[in-house]
Amino acid sequence: MPSYRELLQQTKSEIDEIDAASAQSLEGAVWIDVREADEWQEGHLPGAVHIPRGFLESRIEGVAPDKATSVVLYCASAARSAFAAKTLEELGYGDVHSLAGGFTDWKRNGLEITMPRTLSPEKRTRYSRHLLIPEIGEEGQLKLLDSRILLIGAGGLGSPASLYLAAAGVGTLGIIDADIVDETNLQRQIAHSLDTLGTPKVDSAKRAIEALNPDVDVVTYRERLTSENIDRILDDRWDLIVDGADNFPTRYLVNDASVWRGIPVVHGSIYRFEGQVTVFNPHEGPCYRCLFPEPPPPELAPSCAEGGVLGVLPGIIGSLQTNEAIKLAAGIGDPLVGRLLLFDALSTEFNEVKIERRADCPVCGDHPSITEYIDYVEFCSR
Amino acid sequence: MSLVRVPPVLREEAGGAREVEASGGTVRELLEDLTLRIPALGSRVYGDGEIRSFVNVYVDGEDVRTRDGLDTPVRDSSTVILLPAMAGGSFASPMGDRSPTAKRSSATATPR
After folding, report:
1. Structure confidence by residue, pLDDT tens digits, A365-375
2. Which H helix or E strand runs over A151?
3. Which terminus of chain A is less hemmed in, N or C, by CB atoms within 10 Å?
4. Is B107–A295 a contact, with Cβ atoms under 8 angstroms apart?
5. Structural domain harbouring A80
6. A307 with B92: Cβ contact below 8 A
């Protein structure tokens, strides 16, 4: 049986070892760091993908699905990468190289390295249950911490959404709401409490979020969304909108602005025992106007009498919205695009209907007829 | 007979029922049958030979507008979903509120 040294010599003779300059001249090559996580944290080559040696076989197709792709492997000193190169050749990769001298020589020669962003020990603890999920992990958690999500409304839907988004570590949460907390809200609006009765909902929600997670930066807008203020608010670079509005004028304003600015909207609405959720991802799927092109006109007046709602329903629907928002922010899973999810709390049933993008949609269609904001006026005759 | 799911905002018209039955080989026949059986409900969804504005009709999960409209075939095993626009607590009540004293709201376009 050969010794380790003999096996390494043998393997190195069977694979291609490449110097840094030649490796850098390879067009379209995938660079893979096969070292362990603690070594990666100390710095790595720019643009490299981290796949520890033990995961190489199982993960290589994810980063290099085409076996004709040039692959440059490196470790600390070109031993592990030599064995790794041999493995990839056995898997059918045709242009595999092991970087001579590895990371040690690269760094010693003064070539550029990247220090990975990492979570502080406190954040590792707080988000440990996310870090344990491979689909999220450190990379996904960093994306959540970098993301900026705007909540329309701090009421029934906005309460669970704001709390779960804050708990998940979404870095910046914007909240728009003009209302004040009153006793009738407490049956379902769990971000508010007896302590905050009579205070603006945005301040009450901010207090609840900060008590839960001080990592979150909360931006409050104590105003009703209108054509006058929507651009100012959206200029604050939101990645995503969670729409928990309670009226048509706001729904349409949010929709039109999101289509023009390309911001995805996670839509939720509730009534009595039933709720609806969908994701409007501009130009990739339908928008709200593909579903309902215009709000109802005066002669088909919508009732704005308070219809009542089961207190837990906004908890369920707002949480489903949050699920979509977290997936979009972390870039995982299949978002609820082109599908309207209907939930019936009485029968505990979910149904789904398809929503298609309409070529004749007045906003996101091929020949849009609406190109500036419309303030629909909603009034109630009491 | 096909199953028609009644949205919460139209349940009073259906005597509180969450599901009703109606028959027809197409959406048109089904809505005409529904209007005969439960005029209060049918007339809120269908009138003058058209599906009312601000109500969407889905057969087996698909919007009939994206299929053959009123000619979209319906099978006995089909489930039909009626879906009026709904925005939080406010919703489109396709015929308007019948009670003259009811609180009403309305949306009027005011282009900027």
Report:
1. 999 999 999 99
2. strand A148-152
3. N
4. yes
5. 4-108
6. no
